[in-house]
From TrEMBL:
This is Metal-dependent carboxypeptidase. Gene3D superfamilies: 1.10.1370.30. Transmembrane segments: none annotated. Keywords: Carboxypeptidase, Hydrolase, Metal-binding, Metalloprotease, Protease, Zinc. Zn(2+) binds at H256, H260, E286. Its EC number is 3.4.17.19. Pfam families: Peptidase_M32. The active site is at E257 (proton donor/acceptor). It comes from Antarcticimicrobium sediminis. GO terms for molecular function: metal ion binding; metallocarboxypeptidase activity. Belongs to the peptidase M32 family. It comes from the Bacteria.
């Protein structure tokens, strides 16, 4: 056991340093002065060099060679599964490439934010070209002659390949397209309109975070250009954003990120600063954020309670009943922005990005042609033209920071959430009564017990199968969407 104990002590410090790196990223997105981006890039590169050196430290290989996994208990075996996988992947990536990627993506993030603000795609493309070239190098190193994009997906969703995702998306697309067409052909419910002060939005957002179980003693809510969650264990931070014409943007971004944050806060404390101490995959992570946001937060029961909160906060805002409010929350709108998309169209946004980034990584699409390719695909999928870059290929931060292979996990998370929601309804039969009182404890306790507390103990698909009692598949999600929106739109 000495080798295992030595390895885990070493891993503890590596995990702690990785948390520090994550905190630098949070700071960059929230409060860092704009002029500090170049220096922050140097800082991120320096800490990435330290992390990479630790991950390829010869002692790690020696310890791994001495450990008999079969002699370990279940938790220790899971720790070893993660460490062996991470070590094998890291050993394939040259240290100078890891440091350069950290430096360039930090710089690219700042340039993306400025280009987005200026509606200037051309200003962003040169650094994006650098990022894509570096990520291809990384992918080639990881793939060992296999599919580069598969290697990237594996970073975020182990055991899931691009072909598996493409097959799932191809099966979902016809039902999504048919549902979208039927909904848009029907009479739309009244939309929310008016002016909603940002400070009041943030106050209600903080209340919603607490309602869904987010622990403010170990977390905080801030504003950022692009909402996100970071950290784990005892320091988990989320961000949201406000639009004074659309408070739903703030409220549902907050609930979404709270789903991520609660997953991290609720992992068994025994796993703190170990490989099991974070969400097991981005697909499972997204299942938590999406079920919090949609199946719970956009349900008829919960929106009935939220309607009362809105009236208390903003007074009369033009919708005269909880039912009208429920319809407005779930109104299907033509729109450009993925994070603001309704449940019917959200996955179509992901499929667009999945196909484009896969083509970029395989060399079938040049960075210089990305904007035109995006606009053409958007017109084909959604039926209208992109009006400006911030509503098109500059809307998401992911590519600037090198997160290729991340986007498909959003739709995979929706699929997982569909399976979990079906099981949750059976396990908590009075769920709607609870939600109508603004009480989410029955749902969040079930998710904590069946998904969140386990952290990285089980493999991603195993987490969902154990919790839901079924092999993960898209049918429960599609059945839920067709039933919900068929009811709202009278289909």
């Amino acid at each position: 056991m000495s080798a295992y104990e030595d390895l885990m002590r070493f891993e503890h410090d590596t995990q702690a340093l990785a948390q520090i790196a994550g905190r630098l990223g949070w700071d960059q997105e929230t409060v860092m002065p704009r002029g500090a981006s170049d220096q922050r890039g140097e800082e991120m590169a320096a800490i990435e060099s330290v992390l990479h050196a630790r991950r390829i430290d010869p002692r790690v290989g020696d310890w791994l060679g001495q450990i008999d996994d079969g002699a370990l208990d279940t938790v220790a075996q899971a720790q070893m599964r993660h460490i062996r996988r991470s070590h094998a992947r890291t050993m394939k990536i040259p240290a100078d490439l890891a440091a350069t990627l950290a430096k360039v993506t930090s710089k690219a993030q700042g340039q993306w934010a400025q280009a987005r603000a200026d509606e200037d795609v051309a200003a962003f493309l040169p650094v994006l070209e650098e990022v894509v070239a570096l990520k291809r190098q990384e992918g080639q190193a990881l793939a060992d002659g296999g599919d580069v994009y598969d290697a990237m997906v594996d970073d975020y969703e182990p055991d899931m390949g691009a072909a598996d995702l493409a097959e799932m998306f191809d099966a979902m697309r016809p039902r999504l397209v048919a549902l979208r067409a039927s909904v848009l052909a029907a009479e739309a419910p009244k939309a929310l309109s008016g002016h909603f002060a940002s400070d009041k939005q943030m106050a209600l957002a903080a209340k919603l975070a607490c309602v869904f179980g987010y622990d403010m003693t170990r977390g905080r809510v801030d504003k950022a250009v692009h909402p996100f969650s970071s950290g784990s264990g005892q320091d988990v931070r989320i961000t949201t954003r406000t639009n004074e014409l659309d408070p739903f943007n703030c409220f549902y971004s907050t609930i979404h990120e709270v789903g991520h944050g609660c997953y991290e806060q609720n992992i068994d404390e025994a796993y703190l600063l170990t490989p099991l101490g974070g969400g097991v995959s981005m697909g499972v992570h997204e299942s938590q954020s999406r079920i919090y946001e949609n199946q719970l937060g956009r349900s008829r029961a919960f929106t009935g309670w939220l309607f009362g909160q809105m009236r208390e906060t903003f007074g009369d805002f033009g919708l005269d009943s909880a039912e009208a409010f429920y319809h407005a929350v779930n109104r299907v709108n033509d729109g450009y922005i993925r994070t603001e998309a309704d449940e019917v169209q959200y996955n179509l946004h992901i499929m667009l990005r999945f196909d484009l980034e896969r083509a970029l990584m395989q060399g079938d699409l040049l960075v210089g042609d990305l904007e035109a390719a995006w606009n053409d695909r958007f017109k084909a999928d959604f039926g209208f033209d992109v009006d400006k870059p911030s509503n098109g290929c500059l809307q998401d931060v992911h590519w600037s920071v090198g997160l290729f292979g991340y986007f498909p996990t959003y739709s995979l998370g929706n699929v997982y959430a569909g399976c979990l929601h079906q099981a949750l309804r059976k396990a908590v039969p009075d769920l709607d009564d609870q939600l109508a009182r603004g009480e989410t404890g029955g749902a969040t306790a079930w998710l904590r017990e069946n998904v969140q507390q386990h952290g990285g103990l089980f493999r991603p698909a195993e987490v969902i199968e154990r919790a839901s009692g079924m092999t993960p598949g898209a049918a429960p999600l599609m059945d839920y969407l067709e039933a919900k929106f068929g009811d709202i739109y009278g289909l």
